[in-house]
C-alpha cells in the first residue's frame, strides 16, 4: 500500500535516539493491529501502548486478560494472580527499526508495572512461523508449549482460536455498548452462521516476563 512520508519515517526510525512509548487508545491500536498482526483481531485487549518515532506510530503492544481460568494463578501462585496479564497482541510496521519489537515490549511492560501488573504471559504461534525470538531478546523465561486448543473455522476458511469467541460477545466500538451476549450464545450464533468448531493439535510456545524493581522481580521469580 502507498505509504506517506516513507523516507522521513525511515530516517527517524534508523536509530533509537528519540523513540517514545506511551499509552494509546483502543482505536489507535486497532488501526495498526488489524493491518499488520497475523490474527487480525484485538483479542482481549484492555491496555495498549504505542511506539512513536516523532509523530509516527511504528508499533503497538496490547495487554489483556490471561486465557483460561487457572493461567494467572499457575505462573507465580494464586497470591500473585492479580499481577499477571497477557501480552495478547503486538505488531510493528515495515519501516520500523529492526529492534523495535523488543524495545516496545520492554518499555510497555515497565509502564504496565506501574499499574500493578508485573508478570506477563505471551505466546508464539507455531502455525504463524513464530518461535519467540523477540521474547528471547527481552530475557523472558521459556515455559514450554501449550496443550491442544479448541478452534473454529469460518465459512471463508479462516481459522481462529476459540478463545476469540469471548471477544465477540460484546461490541464497545465508539465508546458505547452496542450488544452483549454470553459465550454460549455467541458460539451458537457462530455455528448458525456456518462456523465449525474443532480441536487442533497445534501448540504454541509460552514465555513469561517479570518486571518491576529488584525486590519485586526476585520475589516473583522465586514464586
Describe the protein's architecture and organization.
This protein has 223 residues and is α+β, with helices and mostly antiparallel strands. It has eight helices and twelve strands. The strands form three sheets. Strands 1-2-3-4-5-12-6 form a seven-stranded mixed β-sheet, sandwiched between helices. Helix 4 (100-113) links the parallel strand 4 and strand 5. It is globular, with a radius of gyration of 18 Å.
Largest sheet: 7 strands, mixed
From the N-terminal CA to the C-terminal CA, the straight-line distance is 47 Å
User: Structural class from helices and strands?
Assistant: alpha+beta
Number of helical segments with 4 or more residues = 8
Mean pLDDT: 90
Question: H/E order of the elements?
Answer: HEHEEHEHEHEEEHEEHEEH
Q: Order of strands side by side in the largest beta sheet?
A: 1-2-3-4-5-12-6
Give unreliable regions as ranges: none
